[in-house]
Amino acid sequence: MPAGTYQQIRLVLVPNSAGSLANSVVPTGGAEQALDTPSAVQSGIKINRPFTVAANTLTDLVLDFDACKSVVARGNGTFSLKPVVSALPSVVSGAVTGVLAGAPGAQVYAERNGVVVKATVADANGNFKLSPIEQSSTAGNVDVVIVPTSANGRGTGIVRGVPVVASGSTAVSTAALPITLPSSVFRTVSGTVTPASALATIRALQSTGGGTFEIAATAAASDTGAYSLFPTQAALPAGAPVVGTYQTTLPILLTADLTAAGKYSIQATSSSGTVSTQQVNVAVGDVVQNFAF
């Protein structure tokens, strides 16, 4: 392709056919089924990310598909594709690594200003790696947010101000010095968004340690508007989050913020960009919170 600066990439999906599913999902305990792809998606997934191609050189881009936010459940048991894809030149990206004690399967996010820029899941031994993340020199440091599963029975941990170095890796903990989070019970926030055609996304945000952080997110069902954080297991720790600031010498001290225990802002955003936010407290039980657009 000609040398120059490009503003956008478009991914064109291979269509499903009668004999082969190119776009599908396998629900837990279920069989493979086709993903419904709206006409706007069929014409191509637009990724707005400027990048430069120099003459007679190879430019590497990493395309990051967020499956958790891209596959949207419907009330009738089917699924639709609402793609969330980002692109990042590999030469300006780095990684953040760590090890958790007693929290296999925990969700781990790298966030900037409360927005998730990379997410992963801790493996069976508690190891995690967030990569690729754009370097701090061009995008700023990240906050690492750790949200164990309800099966772990542990609360949220946040490490603020973690630097990201191009082609490098920053450790927030190690196998010898893992992050151990305090115990916590978990709660669910659920409800209905009306009208369902709003196609809302739902985020649970928690303010602590001088910032606001995404703890969980989901999408309302496109046919009924129903949502739950989460339907199969409670997603929100009711206990106090522990927060600390990155330092090169490990371990990083994490301190409990008792004033934030159980308190969340539930934010619904419609497909048109309208935002509605409600405050909830899950300290004593599950909460039902509806939204109307």
TrEMBL record:
Domain of life (superkingdom): Bacteria
Descriptive protein name: DUF4382 domain-containing protein
InterPro entries: DUF4382 (IPR025491)
Entries under Pfam families matching the protein: DUF4382
Annotated DUF4382 domain residues: 1-83
